Amino acid sequence: MRHYLNEGMLADMPTPAMDLALYQGAIVAWVSSHAASPSPETNVRCRVRTRAYGRCVGDIQAGIAPDDAVEWFCFLCHESGRISGWRQTPWDRSARKR
């Protein structure tokens, strides 16, 4: 996630890259603020688009892996990924007081 930042703020980048940064940031923010929750459910919708079906309507499930990466998965379309370098970024909610 740090590669999306410039001096701690979102860097100037093309729209597709900004969309990806905000999407992954939403996943990280949810997971890091709900780390104590046993449920992998998030409030983030899948962003995959297919020619045949349009936008996926699945919800992302995510959690923190043993190596501290955020792993996410959509059970509907099977899109998945890993997000690293998220600690101490603007999206990291793990150290914030509630």
Task: Please write out the topology.
Layout: E1 5-6, E2 9-10, H1 15-33, E3 41-45, E4 49-50, E5 54-55, E6 59-64, E7 70-74, E8 80-83
Antiparallel strand pairs: 1-2, 3-6, 4-5, 6-7, 7-8
Any overview of this molecule?
The structure is a single chain. This protein is an alpha+beta fold and 98 residues long. The chain has one domain. It contains 1 helix and 8 strands. The strands form 3 sheets. A 4-stranded antiparallel beta sheet has the order 3-6-7-8, covered by helices on one side. A two-stranded antiparallel sheet has the order 1-2. Strands 4-5 form a two-stranded antiparallel ribbon. The protein is flat.
Notable characteristics:
single chain, 98 residues, alpha+beta, 4-stranded antiparallel sheet, two-stranded antiparallel sheet, flat
The shape is flat
Structural class: alpha+beta
Number of strands: 8
**What string gives the helices and strands in order?**
EEHEEEEEE
Stretches with pLDDT under 50, minimum 5 residues: none
Rg over alpha carbons: 14 Å
Biggest sheet descriptor: 4 strands, antiparallel
Distance between the termini: 23 Å
Proportion in helices: 10-25%
Determine the mean pLDDT. 89
Count of alpha/pi helices: 1
| Biggest sheet strand line-up | 3-6-7-8
Strand content: 25-35%
Count of folded domains: 1
Summary?
This protein has 98 residues and is α+β, with helices and mostly antiparallel strands.
